[in-house]
Design goal:
Blueprint lengths: L2 H9 L3 H7 L11 H5 L13 H4 L9 E18 L5 E3 L8 E8 L4 E8 L3 E5 L12 E18 L2 E20 L2 E3 L4 E2 L4 E20 L5 E8 L2 E12 L11 E9 L2 E11 L2 E10 L6 E4 L6 E2 L9 E2 L4 E4 L5 E12 L2 E10 L17 E10 L5 E12 L2 E3 L12 E17 L1
Antiparallel strand pairs: 1-2, 1-3, 1-25, 3-4, 4-6, 5-6, 6-7, 7-10, 8-9, 10-11, 10-12, 11-14, 12-13, 14-15, 15-20, 16-19, 17-18, 20-21, 21-22, 22-23, 23-25, 24-25
């Protein structure tokens, strides 16, 4: 790795935490245990308070006061194998994104509420001294969305809804960079430099939806969630940079990211009064991550020899091309109700938006096959509980390069999976 590329990688460290938000693997649709048990196929019915996420029109089903509190436990795993056959396991991590909803439905068909959930998140953590430490060590993305919602039951056959969203996002990154004890000739230092970044920002957006019931047994629903464009600002710090210390002063970095828009469309049918099935199509507009410009303060001019590009600043703003594509998710779910019990199953096929060229340890994404199972129990007139389990199996993802094949800068094979558990406690009156 020459000095120019090493310095460029240092400038790109601010790109890393942003990329994990723009991947299906780190988009969180598990915002309610009932929907989770049915594979997230919920846009056509949306008949609990998590409708505020899936389809705000479904809030019109609410009569009187209702509240729900829940969380998901997510346990991801990933293994990277380099072209020589050496493997590294990602460190074990556990994530607990919460969700909460409050709603009230009036007799005149008007309903309103507010939902709080985590639409994007998770992170990756690899061993400190692994072979890819210059690509990624620890990345953490946190988001938090508040979604006030209003819905109206126009008739027994048609409902509409809309919401205003406020999203806050924070990224934290730990990263290694090779540094030097001499520039002529380039002599690597005995220890790596470290990079740390903390940045955050917030923005407003909206979502809308509608549900129609051509017959009592058939329900058709669609919803749209708009992009959320967030200006991030934070501190980039470079430590243990040896000879390069004066040329990486760090400072305040800025970037604008645009979380994708989404369209949900679903059709649900009551096979019997106690058994319902639903199929959903979810489209996600990942092309918002076409490229990313990172603004950093320009650092001092480094006295590089002509072979390394001559004297110039090593710390400066940079543009990175990403070329992500739109993706889709297919969801199939069913629910069988027996007195106070409900039994649920679901299946999901989720496509990756990430081109082979940009697969990286920060985000070892791939197409996924997912299975879900859920159980609901109403243990009194006012209280209910829902639980769910979801298993995600990623297709093995092999990328080649950097000068041939996929031209990926960090070629190898990624094998990933995840176990998810959901719990929601509900109250109505």
């Amino acid at each position: 790795m020459n000095l120019f590329r090493i310095c460029l990688v240092a400038l790109l460290v601010m790109l890393a935490p942003l990329s994990i938000a723009y991947a299906s693997g780190f988009q969180l649709n598990e915002v309610g245990a009932r929907a989770m048990g049915m594979g997230g196929a919920f846009a056509a019915r949306a008949n609990d308070l998590s409708a505020m996420y899936f389809n705000p029109a479904g809030l019109a089903y609410q009569m009187g006061f209702g509240a729900s509190l829940g969380a998901s436990m997510i346990l991801p795993t990933s293994t990277y194998t380099n072209p020589a056959g050496s493997s590294t396991d990602m460190n074990s991590q556990t994530f607990l994104p919460p969700n909460a909803y409050i709603g009230y439905g009036m007799k005149n068909g008007l309903a309103f509420g507010i939902g709080v959930f985590v639409p994007f998140g998770l992170g990756t953590e690899w061993p400190e001294n692994w072979v890819g430490r210059y690509e990624a060590v620890k990345t953490d993305l946190q988001t938090f969305m508040i979604n006030p919602t209003i819905a109206y039951k126009v008739s027994d056959q048609f409902m509409i809804g809309a919401g205003l969203t406020w999203m806050w996002s924070k990224v934290t990154l730990g990263y290694h960079i090779q540094t030097f004890s001499a520039l002529v000739p380039p002599t690597p230092a005995a220890t790596d430099g470290q990079v740390s970044l903390d940045a955050n920002g917030n923005a407003f957006s909206f979502n809308v939806g509608a549900i129609g019931k051509p017959t009592p047994e058939l329900s058709i629903g669609a919803s749209y969630r708009h992009t959320t464009k967030i200006d991030l600002e934070g501190d980039a710090t470079f430590t243990n940079m040896a000879l390069l210390t004066p040329f990486f002063p760090g400072g305040t970095g800025k970037a604008t990211i645009e979380f994708p828009n989404q369209i949900w469309a679903g059709i649900a049918y009551d096979v019997t009064p106690d058994f319902s099935v639903e199929f959903d199509y979810q489209w996600v507009g990942w092309t918002t991550y076409d490229s990313l410009i990172i603004e950093l303060p320009t650092g001092p001019v480094a006295p590089l020899p002509p072979a390394l590009g001559g004297p110039r600043p090593l710390q400066a703003s940079v543009k990175s091309e990403k070329a992500w594509k739109n993706s889709y998710v297919l969801r199939l779910g069913g629910e069988y109700r027996m007195k106070e019990w409900s039994f649920r199953l679901g299946f999901i096929y989720d496509t990756t938006p990430q081109p082979n060229r940009y697969v990286e340890p920060l985000l070892p994404d791939a197409n996924r096959y997912e299975g879900t199972i859920g159980l609901g129990y109403k243990f009194s007139q006012h209280w209910s509980v829902d639980v769910a389990y979801q298993f995600i199996s990623f297709s093995d993802r092999t990328v080649t390069g950097p000068t041939t094949g996929d031209r990926n800068e960090f070629p190898g094979t990624y094998k990933s999976s995840a176990n998810l558990f959901g719990l929601s406690l509900g109250f109505t009156m």
